Amino acid sequence: MKETKNRCLGALIGLAIGNALGAPFEYIDMEKLPEINDFHSGGIYNLNAGEWTDDVSMALCLAESLIEDGFDFDSQMKKYLKWIDEGLYSCKKTAFGIDNQTMDALIQYEKDASLPKIIDKDSHKPLARLAPIPMYFKNSFNDAVFYSGQSAYTTHNNIYSIHSCKFIGGFIQQAINGATKRVLLEEVHRHMDLIYDVKLKIVDVTYKDINDLINDGKAINSLEIALWTIHNTNSFKDAVLTAVRFGGDTDTLGAIVGQMSGALYGLENIPKVWLLKLAKKDMILELAEKLCNK
């Protein structure tokens, strides 16, 4: 397999595996977590081992939208509505795990076809579904950055969410194209027009101790956790396990780090046993193949 294809596939598979690893432990504090080394069952959604949550469902909806229509807000919103109404790309029969901001945005869109207005709440949710954008725009850094930011507008129109998405989109696009970990952590941000608060999180992360990190579901803080995790690990396995061991919104943290480290290390460096256990892996791989072949 060509290395670019390997890394491209790794982004979406990594997102799904990271999410599935964290899903049973959502909203459990770090100090109360059991030892996590593999998929588990249970959690607030009573999942089977290897099943995943809303972040993966929305990523797959976004992937299908890009494959069928390119980058199109209306197409994306209609896919997300189909997920809520019909269970499209859910690992269960119906949708579950929908956060309030996403639900409010979709209700508003269904009412008058408008996107949400600017909101004060900074959320990491749009970061966790992002991989399909840089996969689709893998041949253009500028497009990957721009449209990654744009993708947040559908549900989380907040400047911190938007600019965090821009950075992660550029990170994944460059990772797919072979950038090293050092370049991704230290240089990629210099080629983006990012707000100061986001840039500060990026440039300071290598100097941070784990006790300096804030795990509160905000985009810029989860971005910092993701970068700290990747800086302090040297494999996909260690990166995603470190991410979910932070506790809190574990499925979302797992998805964010999973897509970034999946693009960095590639599908072939994701543990095969995890891929075999991943719910609906063939469906996810099929969508990933279509995106990577675009």
Strand order of the largest sheet: 1-2
CATH topology: ADP-ribosylglycohydrolase fold
Domain tally = 1
Instruction: Write down the secondary-structure element order.
Output: HEHHHHHHHHHHEHHH
Q: How many individual helices?
A: 14
Q: Provide the structure class.
A: mainly alpha
Structural notes for this entry:
The chain has 294 residues and is an all-alpha fold. The protein has a single domain (3-28, 43-292), classed as ADP-ribosylation/Crystallin J1 (ADP-ribosylglycohydrolase fold, Orthogonal Bundle). Helix content is 57%, strand content 1%. Helix 1 (3-22) packs parallel to helix 11 (236-244) and helix 9 runs parallel beside helix 10 (219-231). The two termini are 16 Å apart. 53% of the residues are buried. This is ADP-ribosylglycohydrolase. GO terms for molecular function: hydrolase activity; metal ion binding. Its cofactor is Mg(2+). Keywords: Hydrolase, Magnesium, Metal-binding.
Identify the notable features of this structure and list them briefly:
294 residues; mainly alpha; ADP-ribosylglycohydrolase fold; two-stranded antiparallel ribbon; 14 helices; magnesium; Ribosyl_crysJ1_sf; ADP-ribosylglycohydrolase; hydrolase; metal ion binding
Describe, in short, the structure shown.
The protein is mainly alpha-helical. The protein has helices at 3-22, 54-69, 73-86, 100-112, 132-136, 141-151, 159-176, 181-186, 196-204, 219-231, 236-244, 250-265, 272-277, 281-292, and strands at 28-29, 247-248.
